[in-house]
Amino acid sequence: MSLINKIETGYLQLLRILVLVLATLAILGAVWAGMNAAINYNAKPEKVDDKITLNGAAFTLDAAQAEQPRTADSSAKTDERVLRDNFASVVNKYAKQLSPEHVAPAGGYDKFLDKSLNDPEQGPEYVKSLTVYIDQAFSRKDIAAKAHGADFISVADKIGSAHLDAWQAEKARIAEAHKAAAEAAVQKQAGAMQSLYALSGLFATFVTLILLVVLIRIERNLRGVAKPSAEAGV
To answer: Nearest CA to 98 among 141, 157, 55, 159?
Structure first.
């Protein structure tokens, strides 16, 4: 009987150590799950830069190599009247150089700009960007060389079309970035909920294992009390 008791005691000791290890792992897992849930429960979409910056110096009518771009003036005001005047000033600057008959009078581009200014997908920022884009494109010698006389309007239209395509592509990219950021935030929030479920399960496991340790301890103590009694013949 003493050998059996020793074996049982050894097994109880091993079981106690195993349960303590498992309980430690459970509480560590619960802590990790709790931290993950706390961090991601109210996760917000990552910030996306909505600013669109287009480089008119990269515009090409053919396969000609682009010159080095000029630095755009980013301090221009967005007041509509100022934007209209800036646009007319830039276009007329090159019209005077390349095709004087196409110089527009004051307010001559207002009707053209009204559509962009009133378009929620474009607005003042679009006109501001278009003005810089035209300035950069016409400042290139290879572009200006093909815009003399009657060709001025045709080249200007192509520059405007290229800018519109680039603008729409950037808007689509930004919209996609916002969508991806929102989806990532939703996934983080879903992960946080899963972490909460894991936290509750791991904590329940921890409590169960601790109770098992207590029961094992009680069992060992009872065996310790019973052994002297048996030896005394009680």
So the answer is: 141
CB 137 within 8 A of CB 143: yes
The pTM score is 0.58
- Tokens at 29, concatenated: 């897992």
Report which DSSP code applies to 102. Answer: G
Residue with tokens 């815009």: 147
Tokens 């301090």 belong to residue: 75
Express each pLDDT in 38-83 by its tens digit. 877 776 777 767 677 776 666 666 543 334 344 444 443 448 888 9
b/e sequence 151-174, b meaning 16+ C-beta within 10 Å: ebeebbebbbebbeebbeebeeee
Q: For residues 140 and 143, give the distance between their C-alpha atoms in angstroms, rounded to a whole number.
A: 5
Give pairs for 125-130: CB < 8 Å, separation 24+: 125/52, 125/78, 126/167, 127/83, 127/84, 127/87, 128/76, 128/78, 128/83, 128/86, 129/52, 129/53, 129/54, 129/163, 129/167, 130/87, 130/160, 130/163
